[in-house]
Amino acid sequence: MATLLTATFPGDTEGQALLRKVKIAIANICGHGVSKKGVVLTAPKKLDKERDNLKDDYKKIWKECTIEYDPDETGASVLMSKRQIRLGPFFLRPSIRVTDLEEVILHEFLHVALDIKDRQFHHGLMTQILKYEIGYPEDSAAFVD
Ligand SMILES: [Zn+2]
């Protein structure tokens, strides 16, 4: 199961507001909420292995992912080898919507789940998947790595 590291989020109002939005975003993309321990069992249901060119074991990869807040992260990123998804202070802004976070989490997960080795081709494919297949309004590659 993927794990949301809830203790990494700041304890102040902004940090807890972000944590709440991240939890709703995860519930929206996975089809169920985050457990008290931060566990997310199901891989994102909004993705489709065939349509989206995902690795055969993408559900297993999801189980290895962690999602955390990192004060030193400029936008959002994923540490490929550790499957560590990190959200930075940019996302503390009240203007950040749940759908923005859904897109960002899917974006970072796709970096480790796409069955395409060359990372330079990832963003074009993500635009295809997130914007045109799933229908998110923004292009997530515009504000995250
Ligand atoms: Zn990216």
Give a description of the structure:
This protein is α/β, with parallel strands linked by helices. The chain has one domain. It has helices spanning 13-30, 49-52, 58-64, 98-113, 122-133, and strands at 2-4, 39-40, 66-69, 76-79, 84-87. Strands 2-1-3-5-4 form a 5-stranded mixed beta sheet. A hairpin with a 4-residue loop joins β4 and β5. The longest helix has 18 residues, at 13-30. The protein is globular. The two termini are 24 Å apart. The relative contact order is 0.17. The structure holds zinc ion (ZN). Residues 107, 111, 123, 141, 144-145 line the site of zinc ion. Zinc ion binds next to α4.
Strand coverage percent = 5-15%
Main beta sheet strand tally, sense and closure: 5 strands, mixed
Shape: globular
**Total DSSP E strands:** 5
Distance between the termini: 24 Å
Overall mean pLDDT: 93
| Poorly predicted residue ranges | none
List the SSEs and their pairings.
Elements: E1 2-4, H1 13-30, E2 39-40, H2 49-52, H3 58-64, E3 66-69, E4 76-79, E5 84-87, H4 98-113, H5 122-133
Parallel strand pairs: 1-3, 3-5
Antiparallel strand pairs: 1-2, 4-5
Helix pairs in contact: 1-4, 4-5
Residues 107, 111, 123, 141, 144-145 line the site of zinc ion.
Short description:
The chain has 145 residues and is an alpha/beta fold. The protein has helices at 13-30, 49-52, 58-64, 98-113, 122-133, and strands spanning 2-4, 39-40, 66-69, 76-79, 84-87. It is built from 5 helices and 5 strands.
